[in-house]
Amino acid sequence: MTIKNMQFTCPKCGEVSSYAVQTNGEVTEQSGLASHRNLGNLRSLAVPYKNSPNRDAYGPLVPQGIVVHYTQGRYEGAISHFQNPASKVSAHFIVARDGRRVQMVPLPDPDTNGPRDGRYTAWHCKGGNTRYFGIEHEFGYTGATYPADWTEEMMDSSAELSAYMCALYGIPIEVPLAPNERDWFTGFGGHYNVPGNNHTDPGPYFPWDYYINRVEYFASRMADSPSGPTLTSGTPLQTAQGSEAPSYQTL
Ligand SMILES: [Zn+2]
């Protein structure tokens, strides 16, 4: 059964494809996919899932963008932190410097009439949690610089996740604010852009131009490649299926 009819504008050629998301999570063609055969493989992203209990307090999540963060600890430590109920923080994804990544909060149904309650709302930016997905990027220390600390492996792994979410939720691939501007944005921003937050991540050296370029690359690749992205093994990306709570893997 179709739960959502969606359109995807290929950032490479501009062609608009129409497709439908089914209740079982599959994506079926409606039109325009002849030259964008792999749109259905948006659902093929395979990312390990380690559940965070730090959700289900705010909601519903009505995604209008993606907030880029960095951690103040290593990848494994961030996972543990987000799995600790006492920390009261989480994010949808954490990406490591070597490209490893993990999902910790499920994504909501792409159907705007579907469940988008607090189960899908990560606790990553005070006041903005019901608006934004959160992606954390590994840093073991502060004072990160570019390019040494923003590895290509980390940027690409994250950009692929972002491209997926942009396609699924109609998030524009753009960065409307400067780092010193605080406002509710649509598209991409840093934690430093979210009103009411005093965080400075992802810092002054985050390579926005490179990152957005890679998001566009993966978005077009998802749409154009006959075989789809080559991805690490793992469980399918956790998304809502109807009103059922998602099943979880644990550490
Ligand atoms: Zn942050």
UniProtKB/TrEMBL annotation:
Pfam families: Amidase_2. It is an enzyme of class 3 (hydrolase). CDD domains: PGRP. It comes from the Bacteria. One of its GO terms (molecular function) is N-acetylmuramoyl-L-alanine amidase activity. Signal peptide: none annotated. Residues 227-251 have a biased composition (Polar residues). Its EC number is 3.5.1.28. InterPro entries: Amidase/PGRP_sf, Amidase_domain, NAMLAA_amidase_2. It catalyses: Hydrolyzes the link between N-acetylmuramoyl residues and L-amino acid residues in certain cell-wall glycopeptides. Residues 226-251 are annotated as: Disordered. Residues 52-203 form the N-acetylmuramoyl-L-alanine amidase domain. Keywords: Cell wall biogenesis/degradation, Hydrolase. This is N-acetylmuramoyl-L-alanine amidase. It comes from Streptomyces wedmorensis. The lineage of its organism: Bacteria, Bacillati, Actinomycetota, Actinomycetes, Kitasatosporales.
